[in-house]
Amino acid sequence: MQLAVTPSEMEHGLMGRPKLADDEGMLFVYRRPQPVSFWMRNTPNPLDIGYINPEGVLEEIYPMFPFDETPIRSASQRLQFTLETNQDWYSNHGIRPGAQLDLKALAEALKARGFEPKDFGLGAAGK
């Protein structure tokens, strides 16, 4: 999974990407919990989007369709991560709301990119 951490990475997201490999996706990492909203401007592939709370628990999953600019708003006001994947990736892997994101692995990935995990509410080894 590719991380989107900077404002530029988040703004661009998966726009214009012609195809994703089967297990490829993008994890958006926010510095603090917040409501989120995504759309599919300039995104040619059908995707699923998962909204994840600060504890790393998957709360919501929505399908997204190519080039659809209708915002997909979160029901929760307290999300810190968003995972975009190929459409049906969640169901094909048996992943449902309640699944847990590996926060330790995320903290390590942030450190590898030169970010401080604590700036995202994560300890050095995750929460």
Protein described:
This protein is an alpha+beta fold. Helix content is 16%, strand content 30%. The chain has one domain (2-119): Protein of unknown function DUF192 (Jelly Rolls, Sandwich), CATH 2.60.120.1140. The chain has a 5-stranded mixed β-sheet with strand order 1-2-7-4-5. Strands 3-6 form a two-stranded antiparallel sheet. The radius of gyration is 14 Å and the shape is globular.
**Classification by helices and strands:** alpha+beta
Alpha-carbon Rg, integer: 14 Å
CATH topology: Jelly Rolls
Q: From the coordinates shown, what is the CATH architecture?
A: Sandwich
Main sheet? 5 strands, mixed
Could you give me the name of the CATH homologous superfamily? Answer: Protein of unknown function DUF192
**Poorly predicted parts:** none
**Neighbour order of strands in the largest sheet:** 1-2-7-4-5
Task: Tally the structural domains.
Answer: 1
Task: Supply database-style keywords.
single chain; 127 residues; alpha+beta; Jelly Rolls; 5-stranded mixed β-sheet; two-stranded antiparallel sheet
Reconstruct the topology from this structure:
Elements (H helix, E strand, L loop, with lengths): L1 E3 L2 H6 L12 E10 L2 E2 L8 E6 L5 E7 L7 E2 L5 E8 L2 H4 L10 H10 L15
Parallel strand pairs: 1-2
Antiparallel strand pairs: 2-7, 3-6, 4-5, 4-7
Summarize the entry for a quick read:
With 127 residues, the protein is of the alpha+beta class. Helices cover 16% and strands 30% of the residues.
